[in-house]
Amino acid sequence: MLCHEIDHEIFGDDMQLVEIELDPGETVVAEAGAMNYMEDGIEYEARMGDGSQPNQGMMSKLMSAAGRALSRESIFMTHFTNRGVGKKRVSFAAPYPGKIIAMDMAAVGGTLTCQKDAFLCAAQGTRLSIAFQKRLGAGFFGGEGFILQKLEGDGMAFIHAGGTVVRKELHGETLRVDTGCLVAFSEGIDYDIARAGNLKSMFFGGEGLFLATLSGHGSVLLQSLPFSRLADRVLQHAPSAGGSNRGEGSVLGTLGNLFGD
Question: Is the pTM of this model over 0.85?
Fold first, then answer.
């Protein structure tokens, strides 16, 4: 199935949203809860499946739903269709600060593998599935476990990442990356896990025990602030239960934290 041809515009800097323009009859598929606003004439429906196979049977839908459940995503996806007259717009936003990346799937070979919570929305016809990591090392120590998300199609797809996004083009080189900083990679890239230096560096270097290694020919997208790292820092500085953290940021506040009340 050919993907619908959708136009788009991305607004904002660090709290971005993408506005999708739909011609009459066109549809965009999105993660549940990602919509911000939509114009009159657009109708939406929660469905089990991505709609890439019009005659998809119930068993196939259940298998797709099971895969999304394994990746801890909603088993339902929301389909937004322009039922009105003329062009209509609908917008979607990422759930945490970062960037929205517009990917022309045809330009990256029709296949993109990404972290399991990176997908935001895509033109109808884009197929979403789970990709199991075959190597035990990549599965156990790769940050995303055995499961990554695979997007397939020839239209526009939109993924999101934390912080600043950097795109690297590999032409036979090898890139070593913190496992949490990997967002997505195109077909032709081989993904594996390697030990982060010697034992002292692994335990005291602060960079984790393992690094992701990417090699081959294709594109790699990296993020500067993985959500897990952001969440850890928020929890570290969150006020303790039972009251606010008075004097936060001051010398007296720091001493209070060291010696208690």
Answer: no
